[in-house]
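G., the chain you wanted modeled:
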Amino acid sequence: MKSYAIGEVARLLNVKPYVVRYWEQEIPLIQARRDSGGRHCYSERDVEIFIRLKYLLYERKFTVEGAREELYRELSGKSQDLHALVSNLRNELMDLYFSVPGGKEEE
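Predicted structure as tokens:
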């Protein structure tokens, strides 16, 4: 998985690196790691969160606190939807498995 240095993220977002660092401190969803040289490295997921955060702050005019709450709301909704989707898919696969001859021994 590709990782991004703080300078790359700042250029991508068109903000200064200190803004990226501030957002990192304010949004616990962002989980920067440090490379062997001690530099901040961000995952693709972190970059996606930064992009959404910038949109909420600059376009939608959210406060940092409001944007943080919105991000949590959005991410929890997606994971709940994903959990339901995976559960439904699992049930369908189980139904298919048991409907195929040899899928389950007859009792």
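The mean pLDDT is 82.

Shout if anything looks off.
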